Amino acid sequence: MNSMKKLLLFFTIVCALAFFPITTLRAEEISSFDGDISIQKDGSFTVSENILYDFGTHEKHGIYRTIPYEKINTEGKRFRMDMGPFSVIDPEGKPYQFTQSTEGQDTQLKIGSPNVLVREQKTYIIRYTVKGGLTYFSDHDELYWQVTGTDWQVPIQKASLAVSLPGTIDQTQIRMTCYTGSRDSSASDCSTAYTNGRITISSDTMLSSREGMTVVVGFPKNLVAVLEPKPVNTWLSDLIVTIVRIVFALFSIGWYLILPVWIVVHWFRTGRDPKPPMGVASAWFDVPKTDKEHRLLTPGETGTLIDEKADMREITATIVDLARRGYLKIIEKKKRDFYLEKRNAVKKEDTLVQFEKTLYDGIFFGEDPVRIKDADSIDTVSKTKKQLYDAVVQEKFFVSNPESVRTKYSIIGGLALFTMNFPLALSSFIFGRAMPKKTVSGAQNAAVAQSLKNFITSQERQYTYQAKNQIFFEKFLPYAIAFGVEKIWADRFKDIKLTKPDWYDGYDMQTFNSVYFISSLNSSMHSFSSAATPTRSSSGFSSGFSGGSVGGGGGGGGGGSW
Questions:
Q1: Of 82, 114, 313, 401, which is the most buried if we count CB atoms within 10 A?
Q2: 3-state secondary structure 56-78
């Protein structure tokens, strides 16, 4: 009997399998996620997301898509981008039913009808405009955008993004990179291309759930208008602003009436430089000296003394002077690809002034030669500038650090603008920033420096004898750079046959000419200046090219089905 029951059960199962085959279950996924961004001249850009969603064997109403409208900079400050209006259509242009809501710092789109079920594949095209999504740096502008986001509940088989810029730009002016994987991943399993003014970036592998793709596109400045995101105020910052306004109100009489007049009076009484014992000469080819040691001032110190600023012009002059004195060599191995190399000739580093030693050691820290494009010289240049200011104060050329004085009055001027105190802002920016005061010794040496500048810029006659021996041209070249008149200095020797300095190897300098030499030298020093300029935007955002990753920049979010 038991055998008959087992036989009957087996026969029943076989029949069921024959007439009712098992349906294979298929999981959900995004077959393709194709983005398209068109950057406009006004700084905004339009986004189109073409999402081919495969519901598999499940029956759902549609999908939902979350998109963050905030960006966070390196200091943790939040900024809000303007997004919208949103639209969702199918490939034929027919609109989908959807609802829009705000969830925390995200905009959520719930696409589909609660009365209709869908299955298998559906294409959703989401379109919207973004204002405040670009990032602006000192040397380039940038799109740093999370294409897919890292919050999707399903895998993405293929992701891509096409970016259009206003106008056609040479490929050498475009920088592209991309990141794939989970949040904070710096993997780059993706490909980039640039054809006919259009940038295309696509993933090379499947993206699992909670993985995404982020892209970075850098392009020249002044191509688009500056359109920054809006800072998000918190209750703490609102409280601080309220307190500051109360304090300003209490001191309104002194702030709005007395202080603007006091700055002007203070400048007339104590801010003007004393009159030097000897005035400025029309032509004087001598270099200022220190009072105690009677040491010749370096080009960096001389430039700081004459315009009261230590900037990249003084740094450049110092590098050229170190090369001229035999400490390093400037080499252009390929066109616009420059290296700095130590020289093993005369090395008496104990004769270097402190700021020169800081710059020299910082440049060659850990490697030699140094490729300028790869040099991390931001901290070195910052320390060198500070020591330059310290040097002119220690030599008693200034009463106090001129940069600190200017900074103090710039802060006052900024606060004045914030409180609509325009008379105070005017007096701070005009008289306050002119407040750095030289000593009698500083004024006299500044007069000598101005006389030297007058001589360098004079076009009255050529100095064939000195130029013939090369000494004259090279000796004053770093000072001309510090004064910002190196092109004029080179023009004085353009018709004189010079030999190439032994401290400089150009890429193409078969026939040496002073004007061409200065042009090539400026190009190399511009490379150093770019490497020493922090890649940080005006709103405090870091560039996607330096330590970028998945999840960085704007955009992102995720989604799923419902």
A1: 313
A2: CCCCECEEEEEEECEEECCCCCE
The DSSP letter of residue 42 is: T
Query: In angstroms, rounded to a whole number, what is the distance separating the alpha carbons of residues 27 and 120?
Result: 10
- The answer as to whether 278 is a domain residue is no
Greatest Cα pair distance in the chain: 131
State residue 521's pLDDT score: 72
Is there a single domain that holds both residue 516 and residue 553? Answer: no
How many domains does the chain contain in total? Answer: 3
Token pair recorded at residue 550: 């998945």
The pLDDT tens digits of the residues spanning 357-373 come to 998 888 887 777 888 77
Q: What is the 3-state secondary structure (H, E, C) of 351-408?
A: HCCHHHHHHHHHHCCCCCCEEHHHCCCHHHHHHHHHHHHHHHHHCCCECCCHHHHHHH
Give the model confidence (pLDDT) of 33-54 as tens digits: 999 999 999 999 999 999 999 9
Q: Is 349's pLDDT higher than 60?
A: no
Which whole-number Å values give the CA distances from 256 to 30, 259, 525, in the listed order?
A: 62, 7, 45
- 499, part of any domain: yes
Element (H, E) at 193: strand 190-195
Residue 459: pLDDT over 90: no
**Backbone torsion region of residue 98, taken as left when φ is above 0, otherwise alpha when ψ lies between -120 and 50, otherwise beta:** beta
410 and 462 co-located in one domain: no
Task: Kindly state whether residues 260 and 159 are assigned to the same domain.
Answer: no
φ, ψ of residue 164 in degrees (nearest 5): -110, 135
Looking up tokens 């038991």 gives 2
Rounded to 10 degrees, the C-alpha dihedral 365/367/369/372 comes to -60
142 Ramachandran zone, left/alpha/beta (phi>0; psi -120 to 50): beta
Q: Please, is 111 exposed, middle or buried when counting C-beta atoms within 10 Å of its C-beta (0-12, 13-18, 19+)? A: buried
For residues 423 and 516, membership in a common domain is answered with no
Whether pTM > 0.70 for this model: the answer is: no
Q: Which has the higher per-residue pLDDT, 446 or 17?
A: 446
Answer for the pair 401, 390: CB distance below 8 angstroms, yes or no.
yes
* Whether residue 20 has pLDDT greater than 60: no
Containing structural domain, residue 44: 29-229+548-561
pLDDT digits (tens, 9 = 90+) for 100-129: 998 888 899 999 999 989 888 999 999 999
For residue 3, tell me if it sits in a domain. no
